[in-house]
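Standup notes, structure subgroup. Blocker cleared on the NDP input:
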Amino acid sequence: MIRWGLIGASTIAHEWMIDAIRASGGEIVSVMSSSVERGAKYASDHGIPHAFTTVDSLLSEQPIDAVYISTTNELHKEQVLASAKAGKHILCEKPLATSLADAKIMVDACKAANVVFATNHHLRNAATHTAMRDAIAAGKIGKPLSARVFHAVYLPPHLQGWRLDRPDAGGGVILDITVHDTDTLRYVLGDDPVEVIASTQQSGLAKADLADAVMGVMRFRSGLIAMFHDGFTTKYSDTGFEVHGTEGSLIGRNVMTQKPIGTVVLRNANGESELKLDHKNLYETGIAKFHAAIAGNGKPAASGDDGLWSLSASLAVAKSAKTGAMQTIDPGL
Ligand code: NDP
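Run returned:
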């Protein structure tokens, strides 16, 4: 039984992670909120025995094995460093931090403390993406040449807060959604991006200098090119993920989502066939792998290094949009 402390009384923990931890046999011992009242209400609403207002008290006052960090992104670094120092295993939300230098310090500190460190890139855990990855690895589409990611959605009203007006917290569509695209592309393709060119839009929802939509093209080591479209402002689109190869295409529909849904069609010279999918809760799958990694069985779904890749690519996207120039992607690994 892994005992968890939640750092952050967040929406994502409320909507997905508390249930996922419990469904995977974890026990939630405590929650940390910066507000006494919010923390107490959150704990009581979710049946969590203890609420704390500082990370130090959460780490020291009740025995726990692991922490799940889902505060706003500028807070992740100090919370990860304190948790690693206390010897806790850490599941941290994406983006790991708001700068690559900070994220590198976090990953290095966890390696030095010998704790399991994972990035919560849930899309790796989708049956759809794993089926695409397996089909590509089995040569079903020949050599992959290009990919298209459609991940433009409408930001639900209850999430229209810091994402739209706080650059310091890592707001904006790129650090929110493009990070996931990059990780999913790396996972499905088994390849790493090397450069990117992108253009952003601010169409009324986001403020300050934050983007509420972005399009771009990444080039991968193999030479594959991938286009992506991410948005907070797209009310009526669906999502998709396609990979096109010399011998076939994989067409994923409704696959860039938190829900265990979606379809994948393989299209080649023989026609079309739908891949068999065993849909399971993405977050539960991730927590099960994290628990196993703590027990010494395998690795978490997405590691700290994976988080460095997705962050470095996203920061390169943002810089490309600002400068108008192609940017190199280099997580420094
Ligand atoms: P929230 O805005 O819900 O929570 C972030 C922080 O905001 C909380 O830690 C909390 O502070 C404070 N907060 C929350 N609700 C209120 C409120 N009603 N009034 C005042 N303060 C409030 O963020 P999300 O859950 O959307 O995102 C948190 C993290 O998770 C981010 O890093 C994000 O990128 C990531 N995320 C990841 C997803 C995934 O699928 N992997 C999906 C969604 C988000 P305090 O704890 O101090 O009370």
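Discussed briefly. The radius of gyration is 19 Å.
Next: hand off to the docking folks.
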